[in-house]
Amino acid sequence: MERFAFVLHPLRFDDFTRKFPILRHLPESAVEKAFSHLPPFKASHITGAKSKTGVEAEGWFIVVPIAAHLMLDLPFREVMLPKLLRAGRIAEQLGAGILGLGAFTKVIGDRGVSVANGLRIPVTTGNSYTTASAVDGALLGARRMDIAPEDATAAVVGASGAIGRAASAALAGEVRRLVLVGRQERKLLQVAEDVQALGTHTTVEISTDVRAAAAVSDIVLTVSSATGVLLEPGDLRPGAVVCDVARPRNVSEKVYEQRRDVLVIDGGVIEVPGEVNFNFNFGFPPGYAEACIAETMILALERRYEPYTLGLDIRADRVREIRELAKKHGFSVAGFRRFERSIPDEEIEAIRKAARGGKRSSTSA
Ligand SMILES: NC(=O)c1ccc[n+]([C@@H]2O[C@H](COP(=O)([O-])OP(=O)(O)OC[C@H]3O[C@@H](n4cnc5c(N)ncnc54)[C@H](OP(=O)(O)O)[C@@H]3O)[C@@H](O)[C@H]2O)c1
Q1: By the 8 A CB rule, do 245 and 267 touch?
Q2: What pTM value is reported for the model?
Q3: Do residue 155 and residue 261 come from a single domain?
Q4: Per-residue pLDDT tens digits for 235-284
Q5: What pLDDT, in 10s, does the model give residues 96-139?
Q6: What is the extent of the structural domain holding 87?
Q7: Structural domain total, the chain
Q8: Does one domain contain both 96 and 44?
Q9: How far is the CA of 313 from the centre of ligand 1 (A)?
Q10: Positive or negative, the Cα torsion across 222, 226, 231, 236?
Q11: Could you give the 3-state DSSP secondary structure of residue 63?
């Protein structure tokens, strides 16, 4: 039996109230603040994960009960690193062979490097598989919307980030035009240079205006670490596909309520093989998990107990390799899902038809 552990933290107020409904009656900020003083704890025992190859794994969720925005504000070395190391030691004591870092626990600080240095077991951010599944999901969504990627403009929101850089490199060669979006022009220029150096046919541009970039794009991949919504219903062109990988999400729920001609899908959602039971409600239906959790499980099932993805640089060869390992063990990108629900085929068909009714040409922006 292979063993892994994964660190989770609350992303929305719902994550507190799902577990403790009584908290609904208290102010959000007071609840978040009170929980942020609690130490990390084991939240569940994960059972039943079984690879197509027959290898089995068990694992544990360790919760660091701190909201995303607080995690960004707290000093990393003095406060967050000791908490993450404490979570890691719980994983070690439980017998885990590898530790995965969830959501903002790998965005803060040096993206897992110091956590890995302070533990006896290897650590992974899960970002290689997140990148692979984000790009695959966005391209799958595009094809379902009759967008030919090779003729399309794609925007990567958060292109200078860890996942954004790797996803931009993976999209180069797939689309006609790539718009790299972020807040700092200097960082975007560097990414643009790296992507251009790949020598593909894709035209590369940069933008610090998220809405303007979305307005000219057929495919929008959101991978920013913004803690609030960046895209509203009026920001997207008819027929666009938006793959939202960011947690918390970058795309407003209003987009899917109000734009019947735009396909919004959750990125990085994976179907896990076997009769897996996470024994913890993290907002997903049974058998599904985020790509970063899946990467940790795949590495355990492959007996690759090593620091697979760490730091800001996500290696292109690892993105390709983890995609193959996922297939080998029976993990797959979930069908089209949005806000944790699957999107029925008829709905996608209706979106496609509505988009065809009002679609502009991809070069008209
Ligand atoms: N679904 C999953 O399985 C999964 C797995 C892993 C991570 N994630 C999520 O993916 C996201 C990205 O993670 P990461 O590690 O790549 O983060 P990161 O390295 O910190 O990169 C964040 C990027 O977002 C940009 N950004 C931040 N605020 C912005 C704003 N207001 N407007 C425009 N751009 C903004 C940053 O640009 P500047 O530096 O210029 O500000 C940077 O390019 C996070 O939300 C994370 O939780 C999801």
Answers
A1: yes
A2: 0.89
A3: yes
A4: 999 999 999 999 788 999 999 889 999 999 998 889 999 899 999 887 78
A5: 999 999 989 998 889 999 999 999 999 999 999 999 999 999 99
A6: 2-128+271-333
A7: 2
A8: yes
A9: 13
A10: negative
A11: strand
